[in-house]
Amino acid sequence: MEQSSLKKTPIYDEHLRAKARMVPFTGYSMPVQYTGLVDEHHTVRKSAGLFDVSHMGELVVSGPGATLAVDRLVTNDVQGLMDGQARYTVCCNEGGTILDDLIIYRVAADNVLVVCNASNREKIVGHFNQQLSATHEVRDISDDTALIALQGPRAMEILRSGVADGRAEELPAFHFADMPVFNVDCTVSRTGYTGEDGVEIFCPPGEAARIWRSLMAAGESAGLRPAGLGARNTLRLECRMALYGNDIDDTTNPLEAGLGWVVRFDKADFIGRTALLAVKEAGLARKLVGFEMTDKAIARDHWWVINDADEQVGMVTSGSPSPTLGKNLGLAYVPAGSAAVGSALRLRDPERGRIGNAIVVKTPFYKRTR
Asked: Whole-model pTM above 0.90?
């Protein structure tokens, strides 16, 4: 897709000023890196990074019993949320495979915000409309919402310049509240996709660039730097956070993907429950596991997992060097019999034929201690 046909986020000009390398991503021109992937990755782990995630999709479901209505469309418990609380979940089809992974925000019993992946915006909006339009209003507010993620151990310290009363710091993980950020009415959520502390700031598109500049100025002395899609990917991989289109999609179910913890069979019925119960009862044929290379090879996305007869028995879904750990890591679907920690794996580059050796390890690969 040519750059001229790509959408631009409200922060696009700030990326150009920072000399970002821009790439096409889900129909948008997005920054993949500024100073370099590894540098940005370490900055987020050690101080703080600022991400433009305005390409994400947002929809609002409103009307009496909105939480109950949304609860039927996702696997995790929405009914149990309190006002101002968010929850990670997946949305499945009747076959139990994943349409998208989502974060559900309960604003009130009759008002629910849903954040979906940019690549699945039309699909999820269409699915929610198909299921709920007869009883509830479903509004796609993606184009009216900008989203900035401030992530890292110094993120909350930096945010104090824009939220002087300390309300943001009082938010527990996966809670959110409306509050002014640099005198702009925003919604601040204690969530992120890096494994570090931080917030995601929902703000008006017309004010997004100013908030971005204000945060960058406030965080300069603390080491705040802008970070791109490249670092976002390595940060989330180290924490085993799923990437839709790689680790999960509509051919995978949450149980084999290691997301059984977001499937609540004990709640009211939800789309895909019957199929997932059948999967659970039959046992998993394959599992998504974390692996660490035991040689110098770097397994990349779409490498094969092969058996002793050199036949493909699985697939690498995400693979990369880990800047934090100094190892080559990845995720792969493997036969259930090869999924135990310590199991040896043989991996092949299907294009060049190169073989790499790996071992299944416990995940997440990285977990912050502070």
From this structure: yes
